[in-house]
Specification:
Helix content of chain B: 25-40%
Order of helices and strands of chain B: HEEEEHEHEEEHEHHHHHH
Helix content of chain A: 25-40%
Distance between the termini of chain B: 45 Å
Strand content of chain A: 15-25%
Largest sheet of chain B: 6 strands, mixed
Number of strands of chain A: 11
Number of domains of chain A: 2
Largest interface: A-B, 46 and 44 residues
Structural class of chain B: alpha/beta
Structural class of chain A: alpha/beta
Number of helices of chain A: 13
Radius of gyration of chain B: 20 Å
Oligomer: heterodimer
Largest sheet of chain A: 7 strands, mixed
Number of domains of chain B: 3
Order of helices and strands of chain A: EHEEEEEHHHEEEHHHHHHEEHHH
Distance between the termini of chain A: 47 Å
Number of helices of chain B: 10
Shape of chain A: globular
Shape of chain B: globular
Chain lengths: 346, 315
């Protein structure tokens, strides 16, 4: 592991050099919304460390994605046969992702690669990425990442960790992928000896600045039924409008729906983001719906994030504490409060 | 603390103690700055949680359900108009709801407050006509009037139009404001320019349906976008599907919308959804001289037909 120093004045030139080998992905403004997406050849990522409205999950899991296409024209040899649109994306450098968001995406293989079953669309996109995170030096009030097994300087999901140090970035190169990107960008000046200590100081300051926390130790101990049948759900879920704002903004909500659409003589099999907040999400072909009521659906979301995922994978909860759902919920629902209620004694 | 909070708590406690209602639907303080959370008080003790400030952006008529039994609801001017629409549409019965009317001085827009504060707001308090916004670096005082949502800044009916009790004396009603300057500006654009404008304006929509779900008027048992047999609208991000949803919803609310602004406040992506509903509102006013939710004696615009209805366009 090396620590490089990158002068801000040479940052853009480095990114441009790396464009030869990588497509750049980063945060950028579209109208009034800061998003996270592939950048145009003349575009540079926003490096102000702001929280993007939607999480960067779209980088590996787009809101709408064509999985297969099928010719419908009579006479076409492949008429009515779906052909996969699996693509091996060219290498992408994901610049300035928040460490906790990168952590969220690093959990995706748990769901999309079971060993037996691999989702080529997500996994290929994920593999193509070099994760160049930007440490969060000024955490927001809604940030509770440190209690979710990650944090503002979490290196574990990253190939490179950038730390803002005024006129320069300190770049902690963590993996071979990271080394390759730094080389491609021409970033090679090693930082002074005290750089590691400086990063550590900044890390501690950022972690201290996060004042909100959750605990889920008792949720782990309690049984599923105990939590499921608890009598607080009526109250806890009352305000929920059952919109999909939280699920779409969330970096760890990966549920999708598959739909066929026909357009100009061709059929498209698409995967679209879906949300467990909607009734249609669980509507069975028979007409039966196991989660017909709003309470059942809201409870499901919290049970999945805070209990089922924890039990199934033993890697902690399905939440990285980015705070987007808290900031965006139109009804003022705060997952930290729900977690506190679920984690309470008895 | 907003002076209305205490009155709301007292009125609610009395209603629950006397058994006049089973529940009181109001707001409680949010856990996060500049938020509130809809809350159902079921016992007099619960009423201590009831709260009022400039962040009661949602319209609680959305939460009124037939099966609630007799319920009291805290309602701003625009919310009471909406409840009136519900009564006209036979969705709720007047005698089933006790309206605690709030003469309203407007709700603020979080985005404006955040921009004004220039950073993450850690605390926000209301003091008279001012908001005190505290960030890590400083504390600023901003006149509330500068932070108002557009629908509040242009509000013509801040006082409840239908109520059983008021939490305070009616507030002064502003007159002479130009409610449709921005709508006329869009109307004046060429077709191409309009198309480009709406393309951009609605491009951020993820169809999370927060606008629809926050809207009290959207009470169809199954919304057309959720129909699956047959499916009317594509589920992807195709702009045609996104536009279809927004336009149909707006037309569905024509002559019913009371400009409570809950839709736009609920939108996590800042999509200006009210542009469409306000265009409808303007059209209904221009063509038929109707304004939704002001009297129980008139039928909603789309519910009546007269031989001399103007017919220059489909609406």
């Amino acid at each position: 592991m090396t620590i490089l120093t990158i002068d801000r004045t040479s940052w853009n030139a480095g990114l441009d050099r790396a464009r030869g080998d990588y497509t750049l992905v980063g945060s950028a403004w579209d109208a009034d919304c800061l998003g996270f997406r592939e950048l145009a050849p003349d575009e540079y990522p926003n490096m102000e460390g702001l929280l993007t409205r939607l999480s960067p999950k779209g980088v590996v899991f787009p809101p709408s994605q064509i999985m297969m296409t099928c010719a419908l024209k009579p006479g076409d040899v492949k008429q009515n046969i779906y052909v996969s649109e699996e693509k091996l994306p060219s290498p992408r450098a994901v610049i300035g992702i928040r460490p906790c968001d990168a952590k969220a995406l690093s959990l995706m293989p748990l769901n999309f690669d079971t060993g037996e079953t691999k989702d080529p669309y997500v996994l290929n996109a994920w593999e193509s990425c070099t994760w160049i995170g930007l440490a969060v030096t000024e955490p927001l009030a809604s940030d509770f990442s440190t209690s979710c097994g990650t944090g503002p300087f979490d290196e574990s999901p990253l190939d490179v960790l950038l730390v803002d140090d005024g006129e320069r970035y300190l770049a902690k190169v963590i993996t071979d992928k990271g080394t390759a990107w730094a080389r491609s960008a021409g970033f090679e000046t090693e930082a002074e000896e005290g750089a590691e200590a400086l990063i550590k100081t900044k890390k501690e300051a950022a972690e201290r600045a996060i004042t909100s926390a959750i605990s889920f130790d008792r949720i782990k101990e309690k049984t599923v039924l105990e939590l499921y049948e608890a009598n607080h759900w009526q109250k806890t879920t009352f305000a929920c409008l059952n919109c999909g704002a939280c699920t779409f903004a969330c970096p760890t909500c990966w549920c999708f729906d598959i739909q066929d659409e026909v357009y100009e003589g061709k059929s498209y099999r698409m995967r679209n983001w879906d949300s467990c907040m909607t009734s249609l999400f669980t509507q069975h072909g028979s007409g039966h719906n196991p989660r017909e009521t709003p309470l059942q659906r809201t409870r499901q979301r919290f049970m999945h994030k805070l209990k089922y995922f924890q039990d199934k994978y033993e890697t902690g909860i399905m939440c990285v504490g980015c705070g987007r759902c808290i900031e965006q919920c139109p009804a003022g629902i705060d997952i930290r409060e729900v977690c506190k209620t679920m984690n309470s004694q008895a | 603390m907003n002076r209305y909070t205490e009155t709301i708590q007292t009125l609610a406690a009395k209603l629950l103690e006397t058994g006049d209602v089973k529940t009181v639907l109001g707001f409680k303080r949010g856990t996060f700055p500049l938020t509130t959370e809809p809350f159902l008080a079921t016992t007099p003790a619960d009423t201590g949680e009831l709260y009022w400030d400039v962040n009661c952006r949602l319209n609680l008529a959305t939460y009124l359900k037939k099966e609630m039994g007799k319920v009291a609801v805290v309602a701003k001017g625009c919310d009471t108009r909406n409840i009136l629409v519900h009564i006209t549409e036979n969705r709720i019965k007047r005698e089933d709801v006790v309206i605690i009317g709030v003469p309203c001085t407007g709700m603020i827009e979080v985005k404006k407050a955040t921009e004004m504060a220039g950073g993450d707001i850690l605390y926000a308090t209301e003091q008279g006509e001012e908001m005190i916004l505290t960030t890590a670096g400083e504390e600023i005082r901003v006149p509330k009037a500068q932070l108002l949502r557009q629908n509040c800044a242009l509000c013509a009916h801040p006082n409840p139009v239908i109520y059983d009790m008021l939490v305070a004396d009616p507030v002064p009603v502003q007159t002479g404001m130009d409610r449709y300057a921005d709508i006329r500006e869009i109307d004046a654009k060429t077709s191409d320019a309009k198309w480009a404008f709406f393309d951009e304006a609605f491009s951020a929509c993820t169809r999370c349906y927060a606008c629809r779900n926050a809207c009290p008027l959207c009470y169809c048992p199954t919304c057309f976008v959720d129909e699956s047999r047959p499916q009317w609208v594509g589920k992807g991000t195709d702009p045609v599907d996104v536009r279809t949803y927004h336009m149909l919803r707006a037309i569905h609310c024509a002559g019913r919308c009371t400009e409570c602004g809950a839709c736009e406040s609920a939108c996590p992506m800042d999509v200006p959804v009210r542009l469409l509903t306000r265009k409808m509102e303007k059209t209904v006013g221009d063509r038929w001289g109707l304004e939704a939710g002001l009297t129980l004696d008139a039928r909603p615009a789309q519910d009546i037909f007269c031989l001399d209805d103007p017919e220059e366009f489909i609406l």
